[in-house]
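Field reference: "sequence" (input) and "structure" (output). Example, Response regulator:
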Amino acid sequence: MYKVMIVDDEYYVRMDIRTMIDWEKRGFQLTEDAVDGNDALDKIGEYKPDIVLLDIGMPGMNGITLMSRLKETAFPGKIMILSCHDEFDYVKDALLLGAQDYLIKHKLEPEILENALSGLIVKLEGERQQNEQLIKWKAIAAQSLQMQRSRFFQQLLRGYMTNPKVIAESVEQLELYFSIKHSVVMIVKFHDHNGGKPQPGNRSSEQLKARIADEINLEIVNASTGYCYAADNEEILLLLGFESVPSFLYLQNLLHDLSNRVLSLIQQRFGLGASVGVSNHCSSVAHISDYYRQAQASIAGVYFFGKNRIIHYSEVSDYTRKPIRGFKEFEETLLLALTDAARITEVITEMYREIAEQRVSLEEAHTFNFEFISFIKKQQRDHGIAEQDLFESGHSPYEAVNLLETAEEVKGYLVGVMLRLSELLLTSSRGKYRPEIAKAISYMRDNYAGNLSLEIVASVVNKNSAYFSDLFKRETDENFVVFLQKIRIEKAKTLLRTTHDKVYDIASQVGIDNYHYFCKIFKQLTGMTPIQYRTKKMQ
């Protein structure tokens, strides 16, 4: 049945049309009526009618405006205008917008309505047949040799085909003539260049990938040496086959030369940067999926080795370790670096040099990055800094790091964020207090571990101790002793989280030599003992 919707603001008109013919008997199903253009826009989206009988002169959103809106959404149904004599200009506009015909309301009779609907059915049936034919042609195109080849290699590389006899027969049926006695899998990964990198799901990007794969097949590999196809993601895959491998060196030189030719074609012909990941050579096609995973691990090595590279699996096979020092062990150093911007780049560079030298796995590297972002976001929240002031717009910091392709890019991003954080903290401190109080607080934060007193800090800012005490209380809403205690306890909390030092050693490190007094102050300010705090944070 074809679905029909009546759109008219006059109740009696809608009821008259509803009762004029036996809709169901004639192959129609009436949907819920709409009383104006806005109501119709919602209900058309909900009921998806094939035919709309539309009053052209409604209050609010009239029929012309509704048709314009429907045209923007590529509404596939047919529209028949309901009109009065004095709306001829509207009717002309409606016909220009795609209305099929118009009916005069006060002259509407069952026969006229049935004839109009019959004409629409003929058009709908014709379009349906055309669409079905188009679908058939598309289905035929999908069965083209190239599509069949791509589908075969996807199944093969993902481990869905493991019978050597079936694989050999499929290769022959697909008119591929390369040997599968020895195989190598290669993955080409594109690098972003002025937004030109192919994006998964984007039609023009998929077409670009297909063009690149076609040219590689035409100019670099052929049916007797291998096959190249565009994968579902942003990558291009190559499967190369050899009857024999004279030597390891021969194969390495051959693959290096071929990879360079692929990168050169992509750069010169399409203006794109790319890297190639290469698997070991496979001598059993039944296990080719394992070598596909090797190629994936190789191309993931871009993170460690950089862009526009040829990376063989032998270079990344031992990148499987956990970092010797987790991120938490760097937190105290980073907190101190925030008070000395000149050290930020040095500290972060050393962190990432250490990670690279230890050959940690990509998963561990990403975990390290996300813990770093969490640390920065905690500082941002704790100091009341707006996220948009600290992080670049467009992405959350987690997304921004995840989109970066290399460790060097990640390091550069994090250095920039930490430098901004340091500057915002300094600006906030200067703007919040009078200069002498800001200087005093800075001195307290730098020297909290020493034997600080009100008199010592007052002398640093050249103030009388009594005057300084009163001024400090007015500026910070806390007396000097409490403020200093909070600085020391915050430092102690960091040490409890990031080290395994004894509690009494930590007390001494933050300038409180009396262990019992330290525990008392810690519990007053945090609601738990140092041991309870450490246990909770380590869970």
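Residues 110-142 form the longest helix (33 residues).
The first strand starts at residue 2 and ends at 7.
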